[in-house]
Design brief:
The complex is a heterodimer of chains A (158) and B (235). In chain A, 36% of the residues lie in helices and 14% in strands. Chain A is an alpha/beta fold and 158 residues long. In chain A, strand 2, helix 1 and strand 3 form a beta-alpha-beta unit. Chain A is globular, with a radius of gyration of 14 Å. Chain B has 8 helices and 7 strands. In chain B, strand 4, helix 4 and strand 5 form a beta-alpha-beta unit. Classes of the chains: A alpha/beta (158), B alpha/beta (235).
Amino acid sequence: MPDFGWPSGWWLRYRPATMTRRVPQEWNDDFPDGPGLVFVATARLPDWPTVAGTLRDAYECSKETAGKGESIVYVVHNDDLLGRRGAPAAMVATGLLSAGRTLALEVAKQGASVNVVAIEDDTPVGDVARWCDVLLHGATPTGELIHLGRGHIGKALA
Amino acid sequence: MTTAVVTGSARGIGAQIAARLGADGHRLVLVDMAPALADTALELEDAGVDVVAVQADLTQDAGISSVVEHAGTDVAVIVNNAGITRDARLVNMSEADFEAVLGVNLGAAYRLTQALIPALAPSASIVNIASRAYLGNFGQFNYSMSKGGIVGMTRAFALELAPAVRVNAVAPGLIGTEMALGIPEEILTRMISAIPLGRMGDPAEVGELVAFLASQRSSYITGQVIVIGGGRSFT
């Protein structure tokens, strides 16, 4: 598995055939198409329009995935959960966490799960892919926040 | 006299927050889209509070500008309270309802705060009204997302504006507003039965918490979310 830093720019690659993976283009080999949604939102964002656009994109992808009864993983940056990379990125990260908890309640009866994975700058992409694979293929855990790293220890609960 | 800006203050929790901050001696800039704002302002004026009412849509640039213009340059308190709900399961939620809730609850709060930062007084306090729904609540994907976003915004601004300005959030649970009292009795009774303290909260209790966070009595608290929900978060 390649091990490289997380891109700081925009990450979206629209894949209309499946709409199941919203991951950085260079990660596609690690995140093969399949059932369920992986939505990566780890970029630094400059302003409200980019926040609104990202959250709208998450809404559209999540609605389609929930309609199919499939599971979802949102990938965010731990620094954004703590508000350490500016308000725009923080609003996206914590917004997805809260929305994910709500959606976990809504899709539970279908046997689907919704979870959030928090990464750090040096988290290997292969680790993220493995966790997403595990979380997309079972109804439990659901509504959880899973930290891949140790930057959250001793910090505020999300 | 310092200024407190309170959005969504025509009625309910916002009106109680405004009344409480007025009692603490702040000049108030009340903001809401609802015409009822004028009545709330008159009531406070009758009570001896210095009040300016700004009827504005905070999702529009003109609305933000109008508030900034009326706020002046000595803003000691901002309370981002304006909010709406458009509940539905996500699979049935329209794009319009999704965007409306995000735009009012999160976008307006962020943009107004940014616009008012240059007007903040030394030792100012910002209090953002989130919701217990940021922990998750069936049928509220848009609302939960917006209130979760408020939590992130609170933390980020707390770091960005420290040490001069403190920023905190309050997350109310079931509060006895007009909206809550309109819930069918059977459902409301069931909701209350899940609250350890056995009752709805009073809007004045939220006002008291906001007044505490807005004052120097909470001078070492920043970046925090305080849930005021009668213990409902554990049941």
